[in-house]
UniProtKB/TrEMBL annotation:
Name of this chain's protein: peptidylprolyl isomerase
Ranges for domain PPIase FKBP-type: 50-146, 174-260, 291-383
SMART domains the record matches: TPR
Origin: domain of life: Eukaryota
TPR repeats mapped onto the chain: 483-516
Sequence segments annotated as region (Disordered): 1-27, 553-598
Amino acid sequence: MAANEDAVQEFTPKKKPPSEDEKRKKKIVPGSLMKALMRPGGGDAGPSDGDQIIYHCTIRTLDGVLVESTRSDYGGKGIPIRHVLGKSKMLLGLLEGIPSMLKGEVAMFKMKPQLHYGEDDCPVSAPDGFPKDDELHFEIELIEFFKAKVVTDDLGVVKKVECEGQGWESPREPYEVKALISAKTVTGKLIMSHMEGEPYFFTFGKSEVPKGLEMAIGTMVREEKAVIYVTSQYLTESPLMPVIEGYDEVHFEVELVHFIQVRDMLGDGRLIKRRIRDGKGDFPMDCPLHDSLLRVHYKGTVLNEEKRVFYDTRVDNDGQPLEFCSGEGLVPEGFEMSVRLMLPGEIALVTCPPDYAYDKFPRPLNVPEGAHIQWEIELLGFETPKDWTGLDFKSIMNEAENIRNTGNRLFKEGKYELAKAKYEKVLREFNHVNPQDDEEGKVFADTRNLLHLNVAACHLKLGECKKSIETCNKVLEANPAHVKGLYRRGMAYMAAGDFEEARADFKVMMKVDKSTESDATAALQKLKQKEQDVEKKARKQFKGLFDKKPGEISEAKADVDGDQITSESQKDDEVHGDSDGTNSEDSHEAPPEAQRTGWFSLFWPSGRRLFESLGINRCTIL
């Protein structure tokens, strides 16, 4: 029985802690708030938390003396009060009383001081000279209430949805927007209108509409209609409203007719994708984000004075579309980045800088060097990669081999990031592969090791020595005598300046496989040469440092190349029998992060031997 009770308790939902408004309402005692109905309202329910309420308020003493009012008839501005229940700071009596009203209702609330400004720790400050210690009458007319979208926490921008729109995507910087817009004062006086004829066109983020209006439009979807309430602190000058003085609050009626997705692909304004025809599906779920077989038509234009078209698939390719696999470096980088964010059937206009167009890609003969390019691209469709689920082991390994070969090609072309992505894709898929016998297990383990070492080679080419070492460790933890793993990790250690660790790997390599002695010997010779180069540089930097009298400071002047280690040949001898298909050429240049740490961290303990050769047994840095 006790166990059952524990089970019931386990699923009992926790009570939410009371809100500040709920805590305040506990102060209300019988007789402190009385309501008299003056005019009935309409509807079945009153406002609740999250609703924006709009009401007039007139306050009098119990003798009928006017204290203050929002109505112009009684000396007010004629502007009703706007609050959001559960969000706005309100008098306790109104917080309790207004939710009991219906739309259009007029009621008189008789409040004790502790229900208005006389409340202890009242969140609303009393106006100067207000009789906050008196019992008062509050006459309230509830003009309207509705569910509100609070755009800013201070309630300076609030949206009322009049008609739901289509889809889920909302405009943002730097989208191009078309909207029907009108603006009115709180009293309903028209300020400006673009509700007829052509919709108002503006670029999001360019301050072409008031700040608060733009913030609210950024929460709308296509074809949505809304009323947007904007207070003065969010009214900024713009081409839409050049004059904003004299308006405490403006009500904008907006219908979001259309917007064009414009994407700053690099974040610096150089590579811009502008959608000129919508595609089918939901963005970005239905885009070819993953490597896929893509079919596109495109027209390429050189952005010079002539704006000459240099290629058009519909004209120059006999009307046939271009087919290519993404993630394989088969098209310029800017082209592929843009297509990956397109929907089937979409047409986009892409403006591309030279370094993402043809400066780093085989350039057509009729495209000058350094040219900015514009592509008009239509994504006809795409096919996602084959799902490995249900494939037998042989088919899986064939698929893996095809992807690995693509990675090897990309590696040889110097596209190390793309190559690494291919190898890592197969490794992720391997997490779901279960060999059924020892023979399959051996093939699987050997292939996985080759992929890890290929990833390590990519890291090394990208100057990521630490990551290269960590990836080699994945192979060596399972097989400490893996010759290719030792060689590749040794090269990574050498590039990082960890010479003793590199030497140890090359010696173990010779010990476990005599056939690799020539490769290991060559690697040790390179290591020795690198140590000598570092030591030579250090001697030059330390020249004269210890020839000064006590108290004097001598600066070690570096060469023009600073802390960088002199680059050796980019080629290393391949390990014999390296069947992974990836060139084992490893750069001997220190990676950027190693260079920034300076020479001291790079050649220690070689530096220790340098001090000893100079007759210095211990050096204290003050």
